[in-house]
Amino acid sequence: MTGHLAPARGPSFGIMTAPAQVAYDDVLRVWREADGIPQIEHAWLFDHLMPLGGDPNGPTFEGWTLLSALAARTERLRLGVLVTSNRFRPPALLAKIAATVDVVSGGRLEFGIGVGSRPDAPRARREYAAHGLPFHDSTHAVESLAEACTIIRRLWTETAPFDFHGDHHHLTGAFCSPKPLQRPCPPILIGGQATPTLRVAAEHADRWNMPGGSIDKAIERSTALDRLCNEIGRNPAEITRSIVLPVSYDRPEDTRNTIRAALDGGFSHIVLGLHAPYPTAVARWAADTIIVPLSDKITTP
Predict the structure, then answer these.
(1) Taking every annotated instance into account, which residue ranges of this chain make up the domain Luciferase-like (predicted)?
(2) 65 φ, ψ to 5°?
(3) Which of 5, 4, 12, 7 is nearest to 297 (CA)?
(4) Which of 9, 156, 14, 12 is nearest to 74 (CA)?
(5) What is the pLDDT of residues 215-243, one digit of tens each?
(6) CA-CA distance, 273 to 44, in Å (whole number)?
(7) Contact residues for 109 (Cβ-Cβ < 8 A; gap 6+)
(8) For 34-59, how does the pLDDT look when each residue is reduced to its tens digit (9 = 90+)?
C-alpha cells in the first residue's frame, strides 16, 4: 500500500475544519459528508489546545485524538493534522500515535508536522504555559523538528530497536510496533514558511504546506524551497506543493480566483479552509461551487 497520491494526475482538493468553537457532531457531519464526495480527496484538522479566535475560553478538541475518531467513521478520505506542533509531543510518542491512526484509518494518514506556534502569536503562545509545555526559541524548535523527522521515519521503517542521541532528543532501544500500514511509511508533510523550516522540508518532506498568506508570498517561498533542494542535490519536483486557502461562503468566485492563481503558481495540493459554523451540506457546496467550476485546471491520469 502506497502513501502517495499519483504524482502526475493534476491537483487534489481537500478541506480543513479547525476543531475549535465547534461541537464534535458538527465536525463529524462535515467529514462524513465529504467522505462521499469524490472531488474532495483529503481532510484536515489543526493542532492547537486552545482557540485561536472567538471566545478565548471556548472549546478546542485535541487534534490527534479527534483525528483517530474521524478515521474510524470515514472510509475514503485521506486525513491528517495540518500541522502537528512538534513542541507538544516527544517524537517517538508521536510516531506511535500516528502509526495507530494509520492502522485505524486503513492506511489513509497524511502526516503533517511543523515547528509549532510562532513566538509572536499570543493566542497560540498561551497554550504552552497553560499546559505546562516548554516554549524554546526558534533555533531550538527547528533543530528539534529535523531530529523528529529522522526519528519518526526510522521508527516507521526500521525493524530492529535503535538508539538515537541528538542535540535535543535521546532514545534507547526505540521501536514502533505496529508499523503504519502504508509502505514504506505515510507521506510526510511539513508546514511553514521560514527559511530554516524550508531547509528541513527540503531534506525530509514529501509535501510542503504554505499555511496561508498571499499567493505571491507562497510562490516566493516555493521558489526558495526549490533553491534549498538544489543545494542538497534533491529534485524539487519530488515535493508536492500544498496551500491552505480560506473559503468565502458569500464570494465563491473570489475563492476560485485565488485557487486558480495558486494552481498557476505550482501548488497542486489545495486545502479549502471551511470556517464554522458550517452550513448544511457545506462539503457538497464546496465541491459543486468551488471545485467543479475549476475543471479546466483539473486533469485526470
Answers:
(1) 23-263
(2) -65, -45
(3) 12
(4) 14
(5) 999 999 999 999 999 999 999 999 999 99
(6) 9
(7) 3, 71, 78, 79, 80, 98, 101, 102, 180, 182, 186
(8) 999 999 999 999 999 999 999 999 99
Tens digit of each residue's pLDDT (9 = 90 or more) over 64-75: 999 999 999 999
State the pLDDT confidence band at 4, using cuts at 50, 70 and 90: very low
Among 225, 171, 224, CA closest to 202? 225
* pLDDT of res. 167: 98
Domains of the chain: 12-294 (3.20.20.30)
